[in-house]
DNA sequence: ATTACTGCAAAGCATTTGCAGACTG
DNA sequence: CAGTCTGCAAATGCTTTGCAGTAAT
């Protein structure tokens, strides 16, 4: 990554560049441990706690977005591309699929406390991905 | 709670009744530790790990719904009243406010992988509640 | 009486923190 | 060179698990 693209306000270290590179090339949100694993395969090993610190910094700077899915066992991080989108999550294999439109576009929420100032939102769909749906149907038939 | 209302398929113990009672009278989702604290004030103290086991059972049986909000630091549980609703969460004090309508009602998601079978969804709004909004405005003026 | 449930203690797992040495600007 | 960042280890906090005694059906 060239210097001109480096987010301002933070030192450019090998570790940060490596983590950002992973996120830059990922098309789905990744957990800290997945990022750590992928970085490990490169030529710049990065300690897991450092990955967490970098992700925290990136989140603060708005470079990445931190999310959780399902029961929220762990956090996922994705490059902030300033594109508004949501995800569908497979409840079976936990695969994440992108949703390209947004139900909130023309929505006027009816809040119990109407003094609440809504700043943002998050939508998550859950169900079965192609593979798990297929596998489950076959299993059902076999039983 | 009378026996006729007790969810079938599980023994009726003091501990379970106490936890269900808390959830029955709560109008917002509670964390395991909040439930534990509230139970502690009653005449049936329940060990925290037992609260977790009870909540796990209740979730399995569909008696309660397990959720996470914001970054998903911890899980929240609410009585499953089979009413479809969502929540708005204050990003400052984490207070939870109910939303009484649903943006997904007439929504057709455009999925990247159209073989995905959507079974359910979750919508979360975030922003500032009345109190935090007010407090922040005052603070801004003072600076 | 049999089986399931709870108290209690200890482990588990993702994440955070403290510190000294290493690196960036 | 000064200040920040990283490797490493140890701690933290929510949650889960193992086991033996207790309670429900």
Distance between the termini of chain A: 53 Å
Alpha carbon gyration radius of chain A = 18 Å
Oligomer: homodimer
The string of secondary-structure elements of chain A, in order, is HEHHEEEEEH
User: Helical percent range of chain A?
Assistant: 25-40%
Would you give the CATH topology of the largest domain in chain A?
Arc Repressor Mutant, subunit A
Structural class of chain A comes to alpha+beta
Uncertain ranges of chain A: none
Strand content of chain A: 15-25%
The biggest sheet of chain A, with number of strands, parallel, antiparallel or mixed sense and barrel status, is: 3 strands, antiparallel
Blueprint (SSEs and pairs):
Two copies of one chain form a homodimer.
Chain A: H1 14-25, E1 30-31, H2 32-41, H3 48-61, E2 64-68, E3 75-79, E4 86-90, E5 96-99, E6 117-128, H4 130-142
Parallel strand pairs in A: 4-6
Antiparallel strand pairs in A: 1-3, 2-3, 4-5
Helix pairs in contact in A: 1-2, 2-3
The structure holds a DNA duplex (25 and 25 nucleotides).
Question: Explain this structure to me?
Answer:
2 copies of one chain form a homodimer. Chain A has 143 residues and is α+β, with helices and mostly antiparallel strands. Chain A folds into 2 domains: 1-82, Winged helix-like DNA-binding domain superfamily/Winged helix DNA-binding domain (Arc Repressor Mutant, subunit A), CATH 1.10.10; 84-143, Dna Ligase, domain 1. Helices cover 34% and strands 23% of the residues of chain A. Chain A has helices at 14-25, 32-41, 48-61, 130-142; strands at residues 30-31, 64-68, 75-79, 86-90, 96-99, 117-128. In chain A, the strands form 2 sheets. The first copy, chain A, has a 3-stranded antiparallel β-sheet. A 3-stranded mixed β-sheet of chain A has the order 5-4-6. In chain A, a hairpin with a 5-residue loop joins strand 4 (86-90) and strand 5. In chain A, helix 2 (32-41) crosses helix 3. The termini of chain A are far apart. At the A-B interface, strand 5 and strand 6 of A face strand 5 and strand 6 of B. The structure holds a DNA duplex (25 and 25 nucleotides).
């Amino acid at each position: 990554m060239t210097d001109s693209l480096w987010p301002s306000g933070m030192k450019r270290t090998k570790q940060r560049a490596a983590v950002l590179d992973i996120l830059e090339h990922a098309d789905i949100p990744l957990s800290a441990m997945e990022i750590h694993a992928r970085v490990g395969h490169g030529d710049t090993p990065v300690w897991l706690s450092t990955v967490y610190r970098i992700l925290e910094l990136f989140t603060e700077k708005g470079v990445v977005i931190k999310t959780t899915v399902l029961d929220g066992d762990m956090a996922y991080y994705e490059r902030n591309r300033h594109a508004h989108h949501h995800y569908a999550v497979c409840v079976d294999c936990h695969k994440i699929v992108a949703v390209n439109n947004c139900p909130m576009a023309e929505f006027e929420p009816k809040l119990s406390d109407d003094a609440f100032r809504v700043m943002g939102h998050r939508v998550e769909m859950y169900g079965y991905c192609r593979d798990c749906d297929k596998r489950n149907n076959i299993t059902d038939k076999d039983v």
